[in-house]
Design brief:
This protein has 112 residues and is mainly β. The chain has one helix and eight strands. It has one helix at 95-101; strands at residues 2-3, 6-8, 14-28, 44-46, 57-62, 68-76, 88-91, 104-111. Strands 1, 2, 3, 4, 5, 6, 7 and 8 form an eight-stranded mixed sheet that branches. The chain is globular. The chain starts with a strand and ends with a strand.
Length: 112
């Protein structure tokens, strides 16, 4: 359940969010280090650091409710050609998952 600044997860955990936006999200699966030096992994996403500073935490789900990415942290940046403004690039473990996700409109909750 999401509303009034709260996200209640299926586990019963409660997150607070300070802002909600709609964003186009794409998928990537490049292994290696992120721009901040952490290991690329699920939950470490690429952002435009001029819009979302590194370390910003999010809760992300597709607008149609089909897919919940969950909690993510801004740790990487993508090519300025593709990842700019509020666009996000979500890390997935496999190329197949990336292809299945494709590019989707997402509800993005900025945690904090």
């Amino acid at each position: 359940m999401i509303g009034n600044g709260l996200i209640i997860l299926p586990t019963g955990d409660v997150l607070t969010y300070r802002n909600e936006i709609t964003s186009l999200a794409t998928a990537y699966c490049d292994k290696g280090k992120t721009a901040t030096g952490t290991q690329a992994r699920v939950g470490a996403i690429a952002v435009d650091p001029e819009v979302f500073p590194y370390g910003t935490r999010f809760y992300i789900q597709t607008r149609d409710g089909e897919y919940i990415y969950g909690i993510a942290t801004a740790e990487d940046c993508g090519s300025k050609e593709f990842i700019y403004g509020s666009r996000l690039d979500l890390y997935f473990d496999t190329r197949r998952e990336c292809i299945q996700f494709g590019a989707r409109s997402c509800d993005v909750y900025i945690l904090g």
